[in-house]
Design goal:
- It is built from 5 helices and 25 strands.
- It is mainly beta and about 350 residues long.
- It folds into 3 domains: about 160 residues, no CATH class; about 80 residues, no CATH class; about 90 residues, Immunoglobulin-like, CATH 2.60.40.
- The strands form 6 sheets. Strands 1, 3, 4, 5, 9, 11, 14, 15 and 16 form a 9-stranded antiparallel sheet that branches. It has a 5-stranded mixed sheet with strand order 8-21-24-17-25.
């Protein structure tokens, strides 16, 4: 059972604790926050209604509960120490969204293969980047034959879009058009949606810390798709839920997330763009790409050859939790993978991936 949700924070969300505000924090902190933040919030929401024994009993462990094995809360949200990848509750990529005339407009991170040609007062020209390999000592990778894209165009000084696409903008990208992009119609810049502010304040231990706070503009929230196993209790919404560091509160309600009207025929060449930061394999590639063969795996049509990647933000490794839990490879939102199949196939977009031809 799938449900679309909108979350609107009552105040700011704490993005991260930082040591050096001048060290480029804004570029390294994703907005929206990573999917783990939203998964935990939805788990909290589900457990608040389905764990009849209360939070203290849940913290002690589901194995000691008299309802162990019979509880929707445990079956869907998992035990406190359960691997989030193994629980029954699943979510799609969290997106920013705004209310437009009583309707919800989802906003997608701009794919990293879009470059800008000309900037005018009221519009820009956006186009797909050419498939040109990066050259020079500043590029190093261990995959001979894999081409990394550089944002190149016929005009000098072209740069990435670095904004959020509307459904109309997504359709232009998916159909690989060179088109005049108008702000508000095709894309929205970040400052129209949110601001990030550093705050310095003493902690309970007396140590002064700086944290980054995300404040959404009025009419802006987060949307995501939640999937609960069939036969289990549904989410109880509308409701309030705690989310993120500092356990800030957010209002949650059910909505309908409209999809972009993309009409693509089966083809041999596809671009797959990450809608959110997501966990990758140790190879630095998505889990749906075979690291040895560089070919696609289910749920996408198998056998498609990866031959290019466009990514403005490098893949990173998240900090591990203690010595027993290693850091995980994180692929940034907007990273775009160019795939070529031997025969025409259809690749449908998902709650995690934008799909477009080229």
């Amino acid at each position: 059972m799938k449900t679309d949700l909108m979350l609107v924070p009552s105040d700011t969300l704490v993005l991260a604790d930082v040591l050096d505000v001048a060290g480029g924090w804004e570029a390294s902190e994703p907005v929206p926050p990573g999917p783990g933040v939203f998964l935990q919030a939805v788990r909290n929401l589900y457990l608040s209604a389905q764990c009849s024994e209360g939070s203290k009993a849940y913290d002690k462990g589901c194995a000691s509960c008299p309802k162990h094995g019979k509880c929707d809360g445990e079956a869907v949200a998992g035990a406190r120490d359960a691997d989030p990848e193994q629980i029954g509750l699943k979510i799609g990529a969290p997106l920013l969204a705004r209310e437009m005339g009583g309707r919800i407009e989802p906003l997608h991170p701009a794919p990293d293969d879009i470059v800008l040609d000309e900037k005018h007062k009221d519009f820009i020209f956006a186009q797909p980047s050419y498939l040109e390999p990066l050259r020079g000592d500043f590029v190093r990778h261990d995959r001979p034959g894999l081409r990394l894209l550089t944002p190149t165009s016929r005009k000098a000084g072209a740069e990435g879009l670095g904004a959020f696409l509307t459904r109309k903008g997504v359709r232009v990208w998916a159909e690989r058009k060179v088109e005049r992009f108008t702000e508000g119609e095709h894309y929205v810049i970040a400052k129209r949606l949110y601001e990030i502010e550093p705050r310095t304040e003493p902690g309970d231990d007396g140590i002064v810390r700086t944290s980054l706070h995300l404040r959404l503009r009025p009419g802006v929230g987060f949307v995501l798709t939640v999937e609960i196993p069939d036969g289990r209790a549904a989410l109880s919404v509308p409701a309030t839920v705690t989310i993120g560091k500092g356990l800030r509160t957010a209002w949650v309600e059910e909505v309908q997330i409209p999809l972009a009207d993309i009409k693509l025929k089966p083809g041999r060449r596809w671009r797959l763009c990450a809608l959110s930061s997501m966990e990758g394999a140790a190879s630095g590639l998505p889990t749906w790409i075979d690291a040895k063969e560089w070919t696609t795996l289910p749920p996408y049509p198998p056998g498609g050859k990866l031959f290019a990647i466009a990514s403005r933000t490098p893949t990173r490794v998240s900090p591990g939790i203690g010595a027993s839990v290693p850091g995980r490879v994180i692929i940034p939102a907007g990273a775009t993978f160019f795939i070529e199949f031997n025969d025409p196939v259809r690749v449908d977009p998902s709650t995690w991936i934008l799909a477009g031809g080229y």
